[in-house]
Specification:
Helix content is about 70%, strand content about 0%. It is mainly alpha-helical. Helix 1 crosses helix 3, helix 3 packs antiparallel against helix 4 and helix 3 runs parallel beside helix 5. It starts with a helix and ends in an 11-residue tail after the last helix.
């Protein structure tokens, strides 16, 4: 099972960058979609925190706001299957939380990934074992 999940995460991550978000969300199992979403959020936030660009955290916050709005639009689509509806509901919950954490990090102007305000957050990292 772990090998299957690992394989799906790798394939889905590659697909994530090459497909429209709507197509990507509905093409993969919910567990994989949620995992990749959180991996990407952690990666983008750490880049924004350590960026030399003064507005990087504000930009990250705007991206998170846009992601939530995009998911709200998707959940309003007619004829969603119950599985697709649950996937979108779960994504909205996690992305609203990510948006709120991003806002807090932005307001505190966190610029180091080793400070408490960042390390106290739930973060997801990909560690590929052999």
């Amino acid at each position: 099972m772990r090998d299957s999940l690992r394989s799906n995460i790798v394939e889905s991550n590659n697909h994530f960058f090459n497909a429209a978000k709507k197509n990507w969300i509905f093409a993969w199992p919910q567990q994989i979609v949620l995992a990749i979403d959180q991996l990407e959020w952690t990666n983008k936030m750490e880049k924004a925190i350590t960026s030399d660009f003064d507005d990087s955290l504000r930009t990250a916050f705007r991206v998170e706001e846009h992601k939530v709005q995009e998911l709200v639009e998707l959940i309003r689509m007619p004829n969603l299957s119950p599985t697709d509806m649950r996937t979108l509901e779960s994504l909205i919950v996690t992305d609203v939380h990510s948006r709120d954490v991003t806002q807090e990090v932005m307001e505190l102007n966190v610029r180091d990934i080793s400070v408490f305000e960042w390390i106290s957050q739930l973060r997801h990292y990909s560690i590929m074992e052999e």
